[in-house]
Specification:
Layout (H helix, E strand, L loop, with lengths): L1 E7 L3 H17 L5 E5 L3 H7 L5 H8 L3 E6 L14 H11 L4 E7 L12 H4 L3 E7 L11 E5 L2 E5 L6 H17 L3 E6 L5 H14 L6 E6 H10 L6 E4 L1 H14 L9 E3 L5 E3 L18 H13 L4 H16 L17 H11 L1
Parallel strand pairs: 1-2, 1-3, 3-12, 5-10, 8-9, 8-10
Antiparallel strand pairs: 4-5, 4-11, 6-7, 11-12
The structure holds nicotinamide-adenine-dinucleotide, 3-isopropylmalic acid (IPM) and manganese (II) ion.
Nicotinamide-adenine-dinucleotide binds next to helix 4.
């Protein structure tokens, strides 16, 4: 298993360090794991002037999977857009054709009190957000800021082809078929033509999955329903931008954004694995970031790219045992509860592994 590791910026190197300890432990137990490190995001801009340098592209192209920390930071927010760290992330997703982003929101029962919602609303929560990742307004042209009639205008293009919609719909239907046969497609068809096509194509694809019950919801309602009654959902499929927003919202159902892993897959399940959160500049360098989303992303990597279900479960069980033991980083600690740091959380996961 050749894994390219891109730690990135902010808390990226701190959380990736703990995930690497987990991989090293699996390696010590006989798994054939080879790690190679590369630069992406702000650290790549500092070293090479580009957020996704060609050497990084070569590295990830030759790897079976990519483990990524996070990119970005306020020091880069005024750079010309092509040099911003976030562009590096978009570039790697596009270059590797990682169109299917799986963002599972699972509440570990031990964290029911860490969620900002009432425990009974989130108890037993297990939903999967399938987010399209290489299209939509993120990549649509034309885009820009320009002068028109003596003032600046900013514009982006929301665009989806039916091929793009249909391939992500297939991923979502297949995910639903393996779970509880329930899929909710989220769009804004009452206003946006682009998402009318989304709904039409999803309905067409649904004919191939008669065992899955398909429903549709407008995105504003979905945002509300996610906090009103999140357990009504099983698999949600949506476009790039709505999926970005709804998955951050869903993370709070699980206690903290520091708990949510993700897989970004191409057609062949080659994948990039990363926590859904960002570089958290406000807490970087303090050894307080929660490394569990990144460690759980390693579990997803073993499951989806390497088909090593047993090893994936071993990691997830170790995480659960740490939580059962009462160990918490500050983002998931109850008020007044003693919190441990990033490295200590890594120690605890390793001890249960
Ligand atoms: P963020 O996700 O970095 O942080 C939001 C809040 O959640 C912050 O208060 C942060 O401290 C907290 N948080 C995030 N991860 C945490 C963890 N593991 N443990 C504990 N607390 C955690 O979002 P932001 O502040 O909007 O963005 C910061 C930078 O990250 C920006 O430059 C943004 O573009 C970038 N970003 C990158 C990615 C990525 O690399 N995939 C994702 C989102 C944002
Ligand atoms: C995410 C992030 C990225 C996105 C940014 C940093 C480009 O928010 O992975 O959720 O919007 O996709
Ligand atoms: Mn996001």
């Amino acid at each position: 298993m050749k894994i390219a590791v891109l730690a990135g910026d902010g808390i990226g190197p701190e959380i990736i360090a703990q995930a690497i300890r987990v991989l090293d432990a699996l390696k010590a137990d006989g798994m054939s794991i080879e790690l190679e490190h590369g630069l992406i995001g702000g650290c790549a801009v500092d070293a090479t002037g580009e957020p996704y340098p060609e050497v990084t592209h070569q590295l990830v192209s030759n790897a079976d999977a990519v483990l990524l920390g996070s990119v970005g930071g306020p020091q880069y927010d005024t750079l010309p857009r092509p040099q911003r760290p976030e562009r590096g992330l978009l570039a790697i997703r596009k270059a590797l054709n990682l169109f299917a982003n799986l963002r599972p929101a699972i509440l570990y029962p031990e964290l029911a009190n860490a969620s900002s919602l009432k425990p009974e609303v989130v108890a037993g929560l297990d939903i999967m957000i399938v987010r399209e990742l290489t299209g939509d307004i993120y990549f649509g042209e034309p885009r820009g800021i320009e002068q028109r009639d003596g003032q600046r205008v900013g514009f982006n293009t929301m665009i989806y082809s039916e091929a793009e919609i249909s391939r992500i719909a297939h991923v979502a239907f297949q995910a639903a078929a393996k779970r509880n046969q329930k899929l909710c497609s989220v769009d804004k068809m009452n206003v946006l033509e682009c998402t009318q096509l989304w709904r039409d194509v999803v309905i067409e694809v649904s004919k191939e999955y008669p065992q899955v019950t398909l429903s549709h919801m407008l995105v504003d309602n979905a945002a509300m329903q996610l906090v009103r009654d999140p357990k009504q959902f099983d698999v949600i499929v949506t476009g790039n931008m709505f999926g970005d927003i709804l998955s951050d919202e869903a993370s709070m159902l699980t206690g903290s954004i520091g708990m949510l892993p993700s897989a970004s897959l191409d057609q062949n399940n080659k994948g990039l694995y990363e926590p859904i959160h960002g570089s958290a500049p406000d807490i970087a360098g303090k050894d307080i970031a929660n490394p569990l989303a990144t460690i759980l992303s390693v579990a997803m990597m073993l499951r989806y790219t390497f088909d090593q279900e047993e090893a994936a479960l071993r990691i997830e069980t170790a995480v659960q045992k740490v939580l059962q033991q009462g160990l918490r980083t500050s983002d998931i600690a109850a008020p007044g509860e003693q919190a441990i740091g990033t490295q200590a959380m890594g120690d605890a996961v390793l001890s249960h592994l």
